[in-house]
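Re: the request from the purification team.
They wanted to know what the chain is likely to look like in 3D before they choose a buffer screen. I agreed to run a prediction and write the result into the notebook, where they can find it.
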Amino acid sequence: MYPRLYGAAAVLVLFGGLGDAQTFDRRANFTGGGGPGEGKCTLEVVVDGAAQVEIQGDHALLRNLSGGAPQWRRFQCNLPMPANPVNFRFQGVDGRGSQKLIREPRGGGPAVVRIDDPDNGSQSYTFDIMWQGAGFVPQPGPGPAPDRRFGQDRDRGPDRGPGYRGRMPVDAAIRTCQDAVRDQARDRLRDAHIDFRRTTIDDHPGRQDWVIGTFEASRGNGRGRVDVYSFSCSVDFDNGRVRSADFQPANRR
């Protein structure tokens, strides 16, 4: 009997300690650059003891494991990290202690990096994560072949109207992104019904090939809980391919 009680007490102490751990949120600052579908984020944090960094989409969480409270210095990306990145890599750049990838991002989960700073005083640590976006397929030769789904005649003529960017119409790009997001939601949210609320082209400089918006995921034939998600999707308007697509919880009601 007593060993069982001691074991239960140890579990409570462990999870109580994790619940009290300090956490610090950060959103990525997007700088652009990089090749099509090639993502990279550079993160810099100050650690005095041990800390863990969890990266998911355009959001990161800095968690204190022991020692002094860690601090954010930098979180810069050229793209949001997709839910299932291809060819994911981690590279430590700077720091006197150890930093290592302890979990790759798979199935919508975060990438997790642990940093241990054994010396006295705080130290700055920098690392990079790199990947290729979901659905990215390298193209042979000097350039991608035109996508015949949209028809050759729609590419001709100097005046394509305000609804065109390159070879692909904006409404077709939006539908393609919604399909990619819906496919991801089907895998991650299972039986949820997806209803897109708002979808538009990102109007920020350097982001005009991104489609952004929100959707509702409902369960129980519309009578259950309704969750709201924000999504972003990068499209190659020349060939109609989705470079990357991802979604994150926006709020819940």
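For the purification team: The mean pLDDT is 76.
Please add any questions underneath this entry.
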